[in-house]
Write a structure and sequence with these properties.
With 437 residues, this protein is of the alpha+beta class. The protein has 3 domains: 3-167, Beta-Lactamase (2-Layer Sandwich), CATH 3.30.450.40; 178-330, 2-Layer Sandwich (Alpha-Beta Plaits), CATH 3.30.70; 346-435, Arc Repressor Mutant, subunit A, CATH 1.10.10.2840. It is elongated. It has a 6-stranded antiparallel β-sheet. The chain has helices at 3-10, 14-30, 35-40, 42-45, 64-69, 87-94, 97-102, 148-167, 178-188, 195-204, 227-244, 263-269, 275-285, 302-319, 328-340, 346-349, 352-364, 368-377, 382-389, 393-407, 414-435, and strands spanning 50-54, 58-62, 83-84, 109-112, 119-127, 130-138, 213-220, 248-253, 256-262, 288-292, 325-327. The protein is built from 21 helices and 11 strands. Helix 2 packs parallel to helix 8 (148-167), helix 9 runs antiparallel to helix 10 and helix 18 (368-377) crosses helix 19 (382-389).
């Protein structure tokens, strides 16, 4: 700190200090000084340690005195930032409803820390009307508040930093994968992004276009009264996923997370456990479920991979609610069948030939419709079908001949077999769905 600035710190009341500080900050903007230098100016006028933590709960700036106060609960060792709280501390904060509710505050407030027996004066910084970061200043031990003059200085500083974040381009250095975040968020919101643009941003973030990827759509269990939790927790969980699986990118979308993962390198990272085992542990620990897209290469497939993951979660949650995650590969046929009857219900897709069999069986107490269904399910294998029906093969042949005479269905024609199989699966799917309603 220069001698001139030291003199300014010793003299002047709060309003004179604000005027002088304003001049210093204006000079900093004009000279395009880096974020850390601008934050350092607070040491001239603020009497207590202070810090800046972004929405990921990462401390992008903190005075040495502030770090010293929190050294027992910080992850980092040494003096270089950014700094992070230990996972156990963050988990405790996530379970504290007051912490989430405080993200909605638009004026100064005091936060009684649950993890360090400290009182902290806080100010939320908003970007485009949404919570973006938090400035914090320590309250001396034994005090519940600070002097009003100190509050006024701290609020001035916070509002100037907030203004710089929104108006000065490049003021706070972007993280390596911010561009990928933006494109992935656009995809998750239903916008198509040119593959070449996504590929360039991904390459800059260390994600190779030649890798094997999947998209995972995570949905959290709703708990009444905890809506504020999503705004503060989801960015942190996105950051946690990226920290655990380095070659990935996660973004919050409303009350969900969309996560792009490089499977080639992520599977190597988890060593003795498979990627999906690790995923299940994460889902269980954070009380959420997930849909997983098919594997793909080339970022031009990412748009539809997001849709696959969301579809897998939707279908899987209804058909197999006890599972933690759902692979689209396991529900592809369900999806195709659902789309087939999106405009016309399956009962109206049933051809007259099958209706004829059903009516005959009802009138004659017959087995023709069941025989046809079993024959198709057994891949038109005579022996397996007869065994399933508990009849002699001769009886089976007579029934199949009767079916042909009544309907004209050519069961040796691939398109006919495909159509019948789809119709029968739709019928079975509707019966299954009823069980879970």
């Amino acid at each position: 700190m220069t001698e001139k600035l030291k003199k300014e710190k010793k003299s002047a009341g709060p309003y004179e200090k604000i005027l002088r500080w304003d001049r210093i900050l204006s000079d900093a903007v004009r000279e395009n000084r880096p974020f850390a230098e601008v934050m350092d100016t607070g040491r001239i006028f603020l009497p207590y340690p202070y810090a800046f933590a972004d929405i990921d709960m990462e401390y992008r700036y903190a005075t040495k005195e502030y770090i010293k106060e929190l050294e027992d609960i910080m992850r980092n060792e040494g003096e270089e930032g950014p700094f992070e709280l230990k996972d156990s501390v963050v988990q405790e904060m996530i379970l504290d409803k007051k912490f989430h509710e405080s993200a909605k505050k638009t004026s100064l407030f005091y936060y009684h820390s649950t993890y360090s027996e400290r009182v902290v004066l806080c100010c939320n910084l908003m970007l485009n009307g949404e919570y973006y970061a938090r400035m914090m200043m320590s309250v001396p031990p034994g005090q519940e508040t600070v002097d009003p003059d100190v509050e006024a200085l701290f609020l001035f500083f916070c509002r100037r930093i907030e203004n710089m974040l929104s108006s000065v381009q490049g003021f706070l250095q972007k993280k390596q994968n911010d561009s990928v975040h933006s494109y992935l968020l656009a995809l998750a919101s239903g916008q198509e992004v040119p593959g070449v643009m996504f590929e360039k941003a991904a390459e800059d973030a260390g994600l190779k276009s030649t890798g094997t990827y999947c998209v995972i759509y995570l949905s959290f269990f709703n708990d009444e009264g905890w809506d504020a939790q999503y705004e503060t927790t989801l960015p942190y969980l996105s950051y946690s996923l990226e920290r655990k699986w380095k070659y990935s990118c996660a973004v919050p979308v409303e009350k969900n997370l969309v996560w792009l993962v490089d499977l080639d390198r992520s599977e190597a990272d988890v060593k003795s456990r498979s990627f999906y085992q690790e995923l299940a542990f994460f889902l269980r620990d954070h009380i959420c479920k997930a849909g997983v897209s098919s594997r793909f290469s080339g970022f031009d497939s990412a748009f539809y991979a997001v849709r696959q993951a969301k579809t897998a979660l939707d279908l899987g949650s209804r058909l197999q609610p006890a599972l933690w995650y759902y692979l689209f590969d396991n529900y592809r046929l369900h999806y195709m069948l659902r789309k087939a009857e999106e405009e016309i219900p399956s009962r109206y897709l049933l051809p007259a030939s099958l209706q004829t069999l059903q009516e005959y069986d009802l009138e004659k107490n017959g087995e023709l419709y069941r025989t046809l269904r079993t024959y198709l399910r057994c891949a038109q294998n005579d022996s397996r079908t007869a065994e399933e029906l508990h009849v002699h093969r001769t009886t089976l042949y007579r029934r199949l001949e009767k079916i042909y005479q009544m309907t004209g269905l050519r069961l040796d024609h691939p398109d006919t077999v495909l159509e019948l199989l789809m119709l029968l699966r739709m019928e079975e799917g509707n019966s299954t769905a009823q069980q879970f309603r």
